[in-house]
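Entry 14. Ran structure prediction on the chain below.
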Amino acid sequence: MKALIVEDETRARELLARTLGTNFPDIKIIGQTDSVASTVEFLREKGNPDVIFMDVELLDGTCFEIFRQVKVQSQVIMTTAYDAYAIKAFEIGSIDYLLKPIGVEALSRAVSRARKRSAEAPGAGINVQSLLAALQTKSYKEHLTVKSGDKIIPLTSDDIAFFFSMEKANYLMTFTGEKYIIESKIEQLEKEFDPARFFRISRGCIIHRRAIINVTRHLGGRLEVSSSPECPVDLSISRARVDDFLSWLE
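Output, structure tokens:
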């Protein structure tokens, strides 16, 4: 099995080469590159190996540029610390991935899957169109951690009823009523969390759809939200935001 290593960090490249040589004697490393340009040149001149171990961040850009510039028919295994958004795209594109630091057991599983895909569809490579389409899709944060004393508490986005600002600090409140101080600003949180589930009803508050019990319309066009749990800040929606809010609520 012939392999190409694409990695811009010399130590990481050498470590992967040693690990492959020690544990997979049938894998022959036929080249090592450190950039988009050098990888494209290698593939154009020497063709596709059986498998490519490819880092995401390279000297002159991300590896996705490689797929745009040259047809990749190899099996591809990403060696990366990239986020879940990219990992989702790798799965859609029939690409495997390894999170750094790379363990031998995980490497073995990835190599086995690459062998299996290669045997089932020789030369098929990856689904480039699906991969690139997935990379255009916005992904939102699904997990975060908060601190409580000396404890770190993991939460999912659906644990969160509100983000809000109060007394010059930012907080989140869970559906079970716990309140935690957070560092992120409301403006940042609005961009990071799924707008299908979260709506910024005021300058200082973002609410989860499931926290809304009912909405009361007041004179002048203003809306007031009743919620569970109760939010420590006002949940009034200004007339300027009413149409957007009602459209979102539907």
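The domain at 146-249 is CATH 2.40.50.1020 (OB fold (Dihydrolipoamide Acetyltransferase, E2P)). Will compare against last week's run tomorrow.
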